[in-house]
Amino acid sequence: MVDLGCGSGLWLQRHAATAESVIGIEPDAELLPTARARTQRAQVLAGSAEHIPLADSSVDVVHARFAYFFPTPMNACSPGLAEVLRVLRPGGSLVVIDNDHQHGEFARLLGQSPWAAAAQGEDDFIRRWWGERGASHHEVMSSWTFDTAEDLSAVLRNGISP
Ligand SMILES: C[S@@+](CC[C@H](N)C(=O)[O-])C[C@H]1O[C@@H](n2cnc3c(N)ncnc32)[C@H](O)[C@@H]1O
Predict the structure, then answer these.
(1) Which residue in 67, 84, 135, 144 is a FRET match for 53, CA 20 to 30 A apart?
(2) What is the CATH number of the domain that holds 151?
């Protein structure tokens, strides 16, 4: 499986616990060393959604978590989707994790943000964009809790900033 836009590689170890082979792809050269240091069980390559350095039909699952796929009228995401479809084997899956713009505390924060709609898209447009391309949509209500301030600070350090 491919973790597209893997960032600092926060999820690579978890992917490696279940996937036979894990490849992280990341365009930001500064994040590559941290991602590579996460686990020996994942390979991390420089690349992007538009340029995935892998052969045609060579991947079972592409996973993109809060990376690249933020469809807006100004950013159609089509080049990256075409590239993902090139590397996926027939019957393979693209799994895109995005924010819920309708329900929950974070949706309310996004709704109040002056920049979120332009950067992350708007709910109706996003749903229509994926729907027109045959994607299915699953809502997962999530929340984060931390036992200690140190646990919270570790996630902020590793998960949000590089
Ligand atoms: C919010 S971070 C998410 C990182 C990681 N997926 C995670 O969940 O921890 C967004 C990531 O997308 C990457 N990115 C930006 N442009 C991209 C592109 N064109 N193709 C793939 N990834 C891209 C950024 O460099 C960054 O690492």
Answers:
(1) 135
(2) 3.40.50.150
